Amino acid sequence: MSYVTLKNQKRISVMMIITGILLVLLCVRLVFVQILDLNNFKEKAYEQQTRERSISAKRGNIYDSTGEKILAQSVSVNIITAVPNSIDKEDKEKVAENLAKILEKDKDDVLAKLRKNSSTEIIASKVDQEKSKQVLKYIEEEKVEGIRVDEDTKRIYPYKELLAQVLGFVGTDNQGLYGIEKYYDDELAGIPGKIVGSTDGKGRETPFTNEQYIAPIQGKDVVLTIDATIQSIVEKYLSKAVKENIAEYGMIVVLRPSTGEVLAMANYPTFDPNEPFSPYSDELKEKWEALSRDERTKELYNMWRNKAISDTQEPGSTFKIITATAALEENIVDMEDKVFNCQGSMKIGTWNIKCWRHYSPHGTESLREGILNSCNPVFMQASQKMGIDAFCKYISAFNLDSKTGIDLPGEVSGIMHDPSSMTAVDLATTSFGQTIQITTLQTAVNYSAIANGGYLVQPYVVKEIKSGSGNYDKKIESKVVKQIMSEKTASSILSALEDTVAIGTGKSAKVNGYRVAGKTATGENGRGDNTKYLAGFVGIAPVSSPEIVVMMNLYNPTGPSGHGGATLCGPVVGSIIDETLRYLEVKTDYTVEENTIKEMIVPNLNELTVAEARKALLDQGFELVSDIELKDEDIIKDQIPKQGASLMEGSTIRVYIDDNTKQTVAVPDVRTMTSEKAIEEFRKAGLNVRMVGAGFVLTQDVTPGEVIEKGSIVTIKCVDTTELP
């Protein structure tokens, strides 16, 4: 006979209680899982049983202002992915070998990805259509499981380095990383699509299931204010100036002063946004392998940086219009009052600050004369009359202590003195553009206010955003920030700046046919042995109705022509103004002869006999030359220069009677020579010359040392340099 002791009864009771508690907990958990947290577990189940493959959206195009030239576009490529668990172990090596061969990859790298315990591995991205077709053919013929070819896009820049720092570039995921690509990434990027398929518990694709395709939405297009032709003109002259003057870098900004539209913005050295992570210059390529990872990153950032908006420097004398504006607006002086005196230098505290022409002081001057002579004492004296508070009020009016607000990433604000701690020396040096720093763009905006009647405009580079259907979603309107001076003050300063180009320190920027206003600058960055100069020039044209403001800076020029803005930048700005206004078909202000030397048009000599050609050239004042002995009856097959070129009397036309190799010559360096000596040197070399202006040669186009065909034309720009700073 069995029986239960009291002790056993207690044990059974405890076990039943514990079991009851566990059952209650289990029920609670079941309620939580099946009711309260049902959606969460549904999502987890969906994630485990499905696989999504992303499809990149095609980024919108970037157009120049004409809407015709595409500066950035996306083309269709493909991405090759693998589902490692869907490939049999014994087949992985063979699959890796074939994929590596088609895609030109390392077999071991591909095999390592196929052996991973992951749901998806990218084998290759940005694969062109030809290779993609080969992969698809291999998959179909060999019935390979687990390899997919999906849509992708690749960003290309058809004009390569043109506008590189402004356009920026994209990363491997097609996300904008710099420039317009970054600033307008939300508009350009579009919305990615995807392919959704089913998988089993091991992540393998399940049979007899259909994949769901969700198409991507293409990004919107943007239209710039920048004209690709004007940009090309600017970059041509900037690269030449940086190379010839051995400068660290150069920057040019071209604005439409009435609206703030950026017509061109150039930096040199530049890079190719199609290959943004590769060294671009020959100098950088040579030292690339020896650089550390951090050093390479630093060099790349320097290469990408849009220095026109991201670097500040002491501007030098282009800043003097701020002081002139303040003096006129505060009624300290009238433009024509001769109340200033230049004795070559001024004593401010313990500093003795010189005028650039300290060796021959300007004497008594008006504000107008101070501007066209670029005389530092005039502006130091004007700032003293105003005082620190009044002067700093206009620094704030020009927004020099803040950003311009341009629609580009990376812009920095100017660096100004704190008015509360500003000294008399700070006031004096700031008055002519030293001991403070601003960007090249800020200077261009300052001069736009002079050109447009006194209004501060906000610069911008994108004028329209449109959808893929071509409909305009948004048009960006120009924005006037505020009026910072009276129309009378702006007109007075513009008049003085015109005198600066006509008879003052800016004569190197004269343009035949157009009235040009401008200002020279030579800023100093650093002091003593560490000084690096900033050569600068800003031009406004045509004065009668300003269409463009052109601001140029060269940082640390170390070439034989020195570091003065009048000498290095003035002629370049003049050439850009000339070509740009003619491209825009802006009517000239007047008609003038470029030189006292008579010029004639080169006739067509092809198919003439040598005797006939000599007679035709004699009538035009030209001479016929050849590298071989010619007979009167020989027939001319080619000539240099070609028909239609304009040449001065006494020039030579080189002719060829067969397909013999044309003769070449290295272009001599005639800079700083007199125009007469330069013409003599070119003719000795067998080259023709076109001369603009008279006096000493400031610039020449073609670059010295470049090898060109004999008979070619080299243009020289000359000016009387006795009054250049």
General description of the model:
The chain has 725 residues and is an alpha+beta fold. Helix content is 34%, strand content 23%. The protein contains 23 helices and 31 strands. The strands form ten sheets. Strands 2, 3, 4, 5, 8, 16 and 17 form a seven-stranded mixed β-sheet that branches. The protein has a five-stranded antiparallel β-sheet with strand order 10-9-21-20-19, sandwiched between helices. A three-stranded antiparallel β-sheet has the order 1-6-7. Helix 3 crosses helix 4 and helix 13 crosses helix 16. It is globular, with a radius of gyration of 35 Å. The mean pLDDT is 87.
What are the salient characteristics of this protein?
alpha+beta, seven-stranded mixed β-sheet, 725 residues, 23 helices, five-stranded antiparallel β-sheet
Strand composition percent? 15-25%
Q: What's the pLDDT, averaged over the residues?
A: 87
Main sheet properties: 7 strands, mixed
Number of helices: 23
- Relative helix content: 25-40%
Which structural category fits the helices and strands?
alpha+beta
Overall strand count? 31
**Approximate shape:** globular
Task: Write the topology of this structure.
Blueprint: H1 6-36, H2 38-49, E1 50-55, E2 62-63, E3 70-82, H3 92-103, H4 107-114, E4 121-127, H5 129-142, E5 147-156, H6 164-167, H7 179-183, H8 185-189, E6 193-198, E7 212-214, E8 221-224, H9 228-244, E9 249-256, E10 261-268, H10 282-287, H11 293-304, H12 307-310, H13 320-329, E11 340-342, E12 345-348, E13 351-354, E14 363-365, H14 367-373, H15 376-386, H16 388-397, H17 424-431, H18 440-451, E15 455-458, E16 462-466, E17 472-475, E18 479-483, H19 487-502, E19 517-525, E20 532-541, E21 548-555, H20 565-568, H21 570-583, E22 599-601, H22 610-620, E23 623-625, E24 638-640, E25 646-648, E26 652-656, E27 664-666, H23 675-684, E28 688-692, E29 696-701, E30 707-709, E31 713-719
Parallel strand pairs: 2-8, 23-26, 28-31
Antiparallel strand pairs: 1-6, 2-3, 3-4, 3-5, 6-7, 8-16, 9-10, 9-21, 11-14, 12-13, 15-18, 16-17, 19-20, 20-21, 22-25, 24-26, 27-30, 29-31
